[in-house]
Amino acid sequence: MEFSSHFKGLEQDIKDLVIASFTDSEGSDEGELIGELVRNVLSDTAPDDIQVFLARAGDELVGAAVFTRLTYPDDHRVVFLLSPMVVATRWQGKAVGQRLLTHALDSLREGGVDVAITYGDPAFYGKVGFKPLSQSIARPPLPLSQPEGWIGQSLTKEPLAALSGTSFCVAALNDPSFW
Ligand SMILES: CC(C)(COP(=O)(O)OP(=O)(O)OC[C@H]1O[C@@H](n2cnc3c(N)ncnc32)[C@H](O)[C@@H]1OP(=O)(O)O)[C@@H](O)C(=O)NCCC(=O)NCCS
After folding, report:
1. How many angstroms separate the alpha carbon of residue 172 from the centre of ligand 1?
2. How confident is the model at residue 170 (pLDDT cuts 50, 70, 90)?
3. pLDDT of 23-49, one tens digit each?
4. Mean pLDDT computed over every residue of the chain
5. Do the beta carbons of residue 96 and residue 1 sit within 8 Å?
6. Which residues on adjacent β-strands are paired with residue 63?
7. What pLDDT is attached to residue 36?
8. Where in the chain are the domains?
9. Going by C-beta distance under 8 Å and a sequence separation of 6 or more, which residues neighbour residue 173?
10. Which residue in 11, 75, 109, 120 could disulfide with 164, CB within 3.0 to 4.6 Å?
11. CATH of domain 2-178
């Protein structure tokens, strides 16, 4: 398994992976929705506000983890949000997701990111250190339909202290249907 963080020129491959995997797990409507989401995130987000981590097996793209900046204007810490995250269907359950995220989180930490947050299944993300977040510790940018999926972790030696004030996500994620 090889990991990389260069995604320019691979946007269509990433979108195809997202559509195929989410269609298999959640149905075609969700596949199309998340496929469109990832296309917009990859094309519309400023370079400083996005970091993408990819897993490959030979020529095959088998996993993608897309992080974008979550801005807390009243707080000095650097926060990135993981969404979406995907592993190719036939590669699922083989620890690709955990290995890709471990690589991604180490890389973000080395790059000075203080906090990683995501909105997903704690049973999976808990395996790589994400823990439930109360909305008083980290205000989500939009109302959450499933608050139990709001999870995060400190990437520094300090425990995660409350992030000050409100937050805003990148434009492509600023849609209530994703939250
Ligand atoms: C969720 C996903 C990214 C996990 O990647 P993966 O490579 O299959 O996961 P791993 O093999 O590293 O880890 C799987 C472990 O997490 C657990 N787990 C909990 N919830 C899970 C879930 N929704 N999907 C997969 N595994 C889950 C498994 O039981 C397994 O535990 P075990 O190793 O003790 O048996 C992948 O299955 C996927 O792309 N699913 C479809 C799209 C999706 O749901 N994306 C995430 C949206 S929040």
Report:
1. 24
2. very high
3. 999 999 999 999 999 999 999 999 999
4. 97
5. yes
6. 55, 87
7. 97
8. 2-178
9. 37, 41, 68, 81, 83, 141
10. 75
11. 3.40.630.30
- The protein residue whose alpha carbon is closest to atom 13 in ligand 1 is 95
Distance 46 CA to ligand 1 centre (A): 29
φ, ψ for residue 97, nearest 5 deg: -60, -45
Point out which residues pair with 80 in neighbouring strands.
69, 116
* Residues 6+ positions from 133 with CB-CB distance below 8 Å: 117, 150, 151, 152, 160
Pocket of ligand 1 (CB under 6 A): 21-22, 25, 85-87, 92-98, 120-121, 123-124, 127
Query: pLDDT, tens digit, for every residue of 55-110?
Result: 999 999 999 999 999 999 999 999 999 999 999 999 999 999 999 999 999 999 99
Q: Which DSSP category does 70 fall into? A: -
